Structures are given as C-alpha cells and as structure tokens.
Amino acid sequence: MFDIQEELKKLPNCPGVYIMHDEMDNIIYVGKAVNLHNRVRSYFRKNIGRGPQIDKMVTLISRFEYIVTDSELEALVLENNLIKEHSPKYNTMLKDDKTYPYIKVTMGEAYPRVLFSRQMKKDRSRYFGPYTSAAAVKDTIDLINKLYQLKTCNRNLPKECGNDRACLNYHIKQCMAPCQGYITQEQYQERVKKALDFLNGSYQDTLKELEQKMQEASEKLEFEEALRYRDLYNSVKQIASKQKITDSDGEDKDIIALAADEQDAVVQVFFIRDGKLIGREHFYMMHVMGTTGNQILLDFVKQFYAGTPFIPRELMLQEQIEDGEVIEQWLSKRKGARVHIRVPKIGSKEKLVELAARNAALVLSQDKERIRREEGRTIGAVKEIAALLGLESVNRMEAYDISNISGFANVGSMVVYEKGKPKRSDYRKFRIKTVSGPDDYACMKEVLTRRFLHGMEEQKELEDKELEKEFGSFTKFPDLLLMDGGKGQVNIALQVLEELHLNIPVCGMVKDDNHNTRGLYFQNQEIQIERTSEGFKLITRIQDEAHRFAIEYHRSLRSKSQVKSVLDEIPGVGPSRRKALMRRFKSIEEVKNADVETLAGVDEIPKSVAEGIYAFFHEGK
Length: 621
Fold this sequence. Notes:
Blueprint: H1 4-9, E1 16-21, E2 27-33, H2 36-42, H3 52-60, E3 63-68, H4 72-86, E4 93-94, E5 102-105, E6 114-117, E7 126-128, H5 134-148, H6 168-171, H7 185-199, H8 204-219, H9 223-242, E8 244-245, E9 253-260, E10 265-273, E11 276-286, H10 293-307, E12 314-317, H11 324-335, E13 340-342, H12 347-377, H13 379-389, E14 396-405, E15 408-418, E16 421-422, E17 428-431, H14 440-461, E18 480-483, H15 487-499, E19 506-511, E20 517-522, E21 525-528, H16 534-557, H17 575-585, H18 588-593, H19 596-600, H20 607-618
Parallel strand pairs: 9-12, 12-13, 14-18, 18-19
Antiparallel strand pairs: 1-2, 1-3, 4-11, 5-6, 5-7, 8-11, 9-10, 10-11, 14-15, 15-16, 15-17, 19-20, 20-21
Helix pairs in contact: 4-11, 5-9, 8-9, 12-13, 13-16, 14-15
C-alpha cells in the first residue's frame, strides 16, 4: 500500500522529474522540479490556489514516483520525453503533431540536387525552411529545377557518367544531363550557386536573366522558347511577391503569441527566416482549464521545439515564461548555437507579437463559431428530431435502403449517424440471400433480421464493455431506426423488432412524388417538418446517404466482372457447380428449400459443399 504522506517525507532535495499515477496506475501528470522535495509536497497542501484542473488531478493521485537528475536542464529534457511518450491527461498538451517541410540542397554530392525533406539532418546538405506548406515547397523545387536544370535522379556522378542514356528531363529542358557529360562540374556548380541565391531570396538577377533570354528568343522568332521563359519569369515574380520583409537584420526568428478562453487556447507562430515572413501556423492546446497564459506558452515552447528539427536564433514571446534561462540553455544546446528568448516592449517587434496575438484570437473565435454552426447542423438537428418524435434522447441513428433492377442483385445498405455525423466505419452492405425477385419489403425484412440477430449474438459474447471495440458495428443498437419509405417499410421493421423482442423506435422518411423528402412517418401518423430546419436537412442527408451507399454497392455488382447469381457468394460454388445447381433446381428458391441430401445428389456437388449451401441459406434461422 502506497502511503503518500510517508513517501513525501522521503523526497530528495534535488532536481528531477515526478510522475503522478491514478488508482488504475495510469500516468495522469508529469512535471519537473528544481527541488523535488518542495515541489511535489506543494501539491498536497490545502488552499494554495492551484486552480480547479490541478485540484481535480490531486484527488486522483494514488501514487507518485520520481527520477532524480543532475540538473534542471536534464529534468526539462526528461519531462518533455515522458510527456510525449505518455500524453498525461492533466498536462497541457500541444494538439498538433506536425513535421514541417524543408528544401534540401545536397552539397555533399559532386552534382548537388534540390530535394523535399521533412527531416533536418547533420550532414553536408544546405537546408532552407521550415515552410508551412508542403505544396508550396514542391512548387518551388519544381521551379528551381526548371530554372537551373539541375539533376533530380540519384545516379552516382561522375562515377556512373555515360552508363545509360539521358532521361526525359534532358529532352524537355529540365536537366543539363551531367550523366552524359554535357555540362562540366564547374558549370553545374555555377547553376547550383544561382539556385542557392534564389532560395536565399535573391530574385533580381534571375528575373533579369529570364527577361533577357525571353527578349533574345523573341527576336530570333523562337516564340515557343520565349513563352517558356515568360512563364518562368512570371513564376519567379509570383514567389518574390509572397516574401514580405519584416526585419532588416536578416535573422531567423519565431514570433509566438496566444489567445485563450476558459476551455481552449490557440498559439500563433510567425516563421521569419532571413528577415522574411515565410509563413505562419496556429496550434491548439488541450487541457488548459485554469492554466495561466505564461504556463501555456511555456508548455508550447517545450513541446514544439522538442519536436521540430529547426530552432531559430530568437523567440519573440508575448510574455515572460517561467524557467526562461533554463529553456534558453536547452534550446541553445539543441541548436548548437546561442538562442535568445525575448519579450519585446516597443517597436516593430512588439507590433509583430501583437499581430500574432490578434491572429490567434481570430482563429479561436472563428473556430468557436465554426463549432457552434457544426453543432447546430449535427447535435442541434438530432435534438430537433428527438423533440419532434417525443423521444428523450437520440445519439445513434441507423438508416436502411434497398436497391435492385427488376429483382436482379438485390442489395441492402445500412448507414450510421452518431451525434448527427456519419460514422462510415459502421456502414454495412447486404447481399440479399433469400429473395430472388423485386420485393423490397422481403429484402428489408431479411436485412434487418440479419443485422439484429448478428448484433444479439455479438452482445452475448461481450463480457466487458471494454471488449466492444473488438466486435463489429452490429454490437451497438440504434436509438432510432430510419426507414427509406413510409408505412409499409416501418411496419416491416416493427415486425422484425417484435419477433426479436427488441424495443427500438422506428421512423419512416417519407418522400413526395418528386422523390424529395416530405416528412416523417412515426407511430401511425405522418409528421411534417419545417423544410428550413436543421432537423429536416439532416433527415434529407441521411436518406440521400443511405440511397447513395446502396446504389454504389449495386453498381459494383453490375460490373462485367460480377456473376449474376447469389450462388457465387457461397464458398466452394464456382461457375460449373452453379450451372449444375441451376440445371437441377431451376430457381434460387428451389435451391434454398432443398435439404443437404438433395443438394449432395447433384452432380459435381460434394457433401461438404452441400452443407455449406444449406448453411448459407439457413443461418440465423
């Protein structure tokens, strides 16, 4: 038995990391301390204003452990690693887990290439970035290769020079073919130097050169070549116009600010490289209830810069953070050069921080509004439907539809909506086994019977709710069953539920003569819905989705590769055995009604296959 008060007395007066566990031994919090004895004991003192989040966490602590380190810096690194590994519930967590793209120039090669990379390694390559848009990086690399005609293949040059013929890139003027010796290494390196200048933001020389080549080609009446240079010229101008100068010192900086409310926080980062704003990104922080702004910033800086391969020389923050000097030491060690954390008070740098803060606030407010609208379309719409039908609550809705053409390849569809959103992982398709003609009611009865019998069998196997994820979507039963049709389809569903002794509300989605949703059929009466309401729109979406899902499945069965017989669904029955069965029984109905001995009496049908055929048509009965 872990005695917290006794263990508190044993805590050492040295730096380290402490780990809090709940009664299930889950890690719920990880923290670092300059002095473990003082820091951990502080959690168990009363009335010290820790905030509701930490107060709640403390009540859940069943035991704690700690790891002693030689310094606060080592504790910081260990804390980051443990948080990333275990994602504790009560640590403020960076929600986004992104790797940013870089442009990599392989300077260690005799003939360098310009490549896309998501990792910044300690090699002889030059890296540019990070950038916020992978698409923009790929476009830039494509433009550089068109401008300077650098090689993109991984041939080992000059060792493999002349081993193979020039590739397509040479013929479309996107490579100078160093693999054929058409350009010397010195000439190639000159092109690489121009590419590096371009990546460093020096566009004027490139623009002048392209303009000159465009004019020369035009004077020689080489209009196709002139158009190519014109397109390249316009592409370079477009990239140059996107670079916004923000600082004259040409340094790499990250500008970091946040906006927070009672529940959520958004951190906005402006990435400045070589004095240019190359992009921005926002990040959501979780578990921020009762957490101060500087604590959120501290947690963001620790978690974000523990994962990004590039660290700028300077971080401009909205406000001071705790352990700023230790964070600077840690970042400097990771970068291999001095890193400064500053909180600007005046001038252009302060304005940039204010701009980042305003952007963060805008993202937060827009996100709240988006969530509010989305909840209106989903949860709000479900509540409307439940109120309209007089139901206490509705979470899971299942809708069904039947599709066939003149009775061929009868199929059924089941679509699932939870909290007003489609749960596509729970969608299911049914190939009708017992109905050979165009009888939608009989098809629907088979689909519903199979669905709920399967679910009941799965439920019997469940001993613990935690095991539910190991089973299929049939385990969960709906709070509301939606049928694509009116009274007839509803009555079929009610009949199936009654036979299986299940009590689930059933509602029909009624359509008008133009096949548009008109209203709901529930408890022997048609209920009109306001067409502009979110509930009506949700019903329409569900009905259309059930229909689409059934049609798509039916279309797949109508492809030429599909054989037009339900017998092909039976293991062991191929084309020859199918033909033998149809010669003997004339119809699917006769095959279904035959016993095992009769089936086994058919030529080419062994007893094991006969048993399989019989089981196929009679399972669940």
